[in-house]
Amino acid sequence: MSDQILYPKATAVWLVDNTSMTFEQIADFAGLHHLEVKGIADGEVARDIRGADPIANGQLSREELEKAENDPKYRMKALVGKHQDLLKVNKKAPRYTPVSRRQDRPDAIAWFLRNHPEVTDAQISKLLGTTKATIDQVRNRTHWNIGAIKPVDPVSLGLVGQLELDAVVKKASDKKNKEAVKRGEGAGASLQPATSAGTADDGNAAEEPVEDIVDEPEANWADEDA
Which of the pair, 73 or 196, is modelled with greater confidence? Predict the structure, then answer.
C-alpha cells in the first residue's frame, strides 16, 4: 500500500472483527504480513490492542470497504488526510550563511574556543554552519588565514541570534556540570553568560588577535569532543 496508515495493528484488529475481508486484503491495507493478520484472527497477536475504526478516523471510506468485501481481489486505498502530515519527518534545513558573512565564521569559531570551550565542535559546527575540519584548523593554527583571525562574538557578526547562542552555551554548560557531578567533582563554578563573555565588559576582547591567545595551553581553548 502506497499510503501508510495510522495505528496499523489496531486497524487490522477492527477489520478482522468487523468485516469479511481476506487476510491478504487486510494485510495490504494495514501494511502488515498476512500471517500477522492471521495471528490476530487466531488471537495469538495483538491480544491487548483495541480495534481502531478506519472509517471513523477518516482513513477509509465506506465505499472502499464495501468494494473490498464484495471482491476478494480488490485492494483498498486509504484516504489521504491530515494524518499523513504527522507521518512526515520534517528535517531542519542546514543553516545558510550569506557569502558575505562566511569569512567571519573563523572569527566566531575562535571566540567559542576562547570563551566557551565547553561547547563541543559538533555544536559549533551546527550553530555556525561550518565543519569540524575548519574548527580544528583554527584551534591548531593551521587555517590559511590564521594571521587575520580574531575572536569575535558571533551575535555581533550576525551569524546567530542572542537567544540561540545562549541556549547552546547553557546546554553545553549543563552537560559539563552533570558530567562533573558524575565524576564526583561537584558542579563547579558557573560559566560566564554568553551575553557578557568577550563583549562590552571587555572592550579589547573582540580586537585581540588570535596569536595572542593561542600560546595558552590547548586545554583553555576547547574541550575535546565527547
Answer: 73
Mean pLDDT over the full length of the chain:
77
Q: What is the pLDDT of residue 49?
A: 85
CA distance 143 to 84: 47
| Relative orientation angle of helices 121-128 and 162-182, to the nearest 10 degrees | 170
Asked whether the beta carbons of 55 and 17 are under 8 A apart, the reply is no
Per domain, the residue ranges of the chain are 8-87, 99-220
| pLDDT at residue 43, rounded to an integer | 86
pLDDT tens for residues 168-177? 999 988 888 8
What is the distance between the alpha carbons of residues 41 and 159, in angstroms, rounded to a whole number? 59
Q: Which residues contact 218 (CB under 8 A, 6 or more apart)?
A: 139
- Residue 119: the pLDDT is 93
- Please spell the DSSP secondary structure of the chain, one letter per residue: --S--SSHHHHHHHHHHH----HHHHHHHHT--HHHHHHHHTTSS-TTPPP--TTTTTSS-HHHHHHHHH-TT--------THHHHHS--PPPPPP--HHHHTTHHHHHHHHHHH-TTS-HHHHHHHHT--HHHHHHHHTT-STTGGG-----TTTTTSS-HHHHHHHHHHHHHHHHHHHHHTTS-S-SPPPPTTTTTSTTSTTGGGS-THHHHTS-GGGT-PPP-
More confident position, 137 or 196:
137
Q: CB count, 10 Å around CB of 96?
A: 7
